[in-house]
Design goal:
globular; Thrombin, subunit H; 35% helix; 12 strands; 3 helices; alpha+beta; single chain
Length: 275
């Protein structure tokens, strides 16, 4: 009997620990979790800076001809960006003119805060990133996060020098979207994503006259409803829609950008105060 008790002792201890964790007040658990992240954040941030330094010295080893070629490519890219900036300024002026004529309120803008990715956490439970900016750059919970390909996700937790971003592939992210060229809002939510595999999401309340397939995909973009994400940002591609069980709408599958799993830098959009 004592031998059996000794064998069962680790399981009993684990059971007491789990039961004790459920009994502990939520305030204490929240404080403990936040303290843990604050204590471990310097380790991740230091590793991120070390990777940046390694990349810097790797680039220093390139030959002069490679650097000259890269400089030419960068000059061409800068020229195209200069043209895009001029066109953007012209469009902003036209928007301001039309707002004045129609007496419309000015659209709330955003301040872009670029941040390096410290760590990626992709599992059956989590789909999130840790970035190298936090309260020290006035990041707020719920702020949208984007990259050149569209939506990355939104800030879920903010600490002193880091922040956690729930990816658009996470089931915790739900937002209103529209199919490009259509104005009727539909519901998007992150799906069940494998650890090693393409990220995806699901859509609901899709109008019956919208069709999509793997050979004829539809671009899914943000609708702007809810005031979190600006309208027109790419979410992903609708690769399948089929009638729902109620027969009133359709539901479907969305394929997300494969670059989400390899991002090294993202942009957090911080809403500006309306004048």
């Amino acid at each position: 009997m004592p031998k059996r008790f000794d064998q069962a002792r680790p399981f009993l201890t684990l059971g007491f620990v789990v039961a004790g964790w459920f009994v502990i007040p939520t305030v204490f658990k929240t404080f403990t979790r936040a303290s843990f992240f604050e204590l471990t954040a310097p380790v991740g941030v230091a590793a991120s800076y070390a990777r940046d330094l390694q990349e810097y010295w790797t680039l220093r080893l390139h030959s002069n001809s490679e650097l000259i070629e890269a400089g030419r490519d960068l000059a061409r890219l800068n020229a195209s960006y200069d043209l895009a900036v001029q066109q953007n300024i012209e469009m902003q002026g036209e928007i301001a003119r039309l707002e004045g004529i129609l007496r419309l309120p000015s659209y709330t803008g955003y301040q872009s805060e670029h941040a390096r990715v410290v760590r990626r956490d992709f599992s059956g439970w989590w789909q999130r990133l840790t970035i190298r900016k936090g309260k020290n750059y006035n990041l707020t919970v719920g702020a949208p996060v984007v990259f050149s390909g569209g939506v990355v996700g939104r800030v879920s937790e903010v600490f002193a020098y880091t922040a956690t971003v729930d990816l658009i592939s996470s089931q915790t992210v739900r937002l209103a979207a529209v199919v490009e060229g259509d104005t009727r809002p539909i519901s998007y939510q992150g799906g069940l994503n494998p650890t090693f595999g393409s990220a995806g999401g699901v859509i609901e309340f899709v109008p019956l006259d919208i069709f999509a397939s793997a050979n004829a995909t539809k671009r899914l973009v943000t609708s702007g409803l809810g005031g979190v994400f600006p309208p027109g940002l790419t979410i992903g591609s609708v690769i399948k829609v089929e009638p729902s069980t109620d027969g009133l709408f359709k539901s479907g599958t969305v394929k997300l950008d494969d670059r989400l799993a390899a991002l090294t830098e993202v942009t957090v959009l911080l809403p500006l105060d309306t004048p």
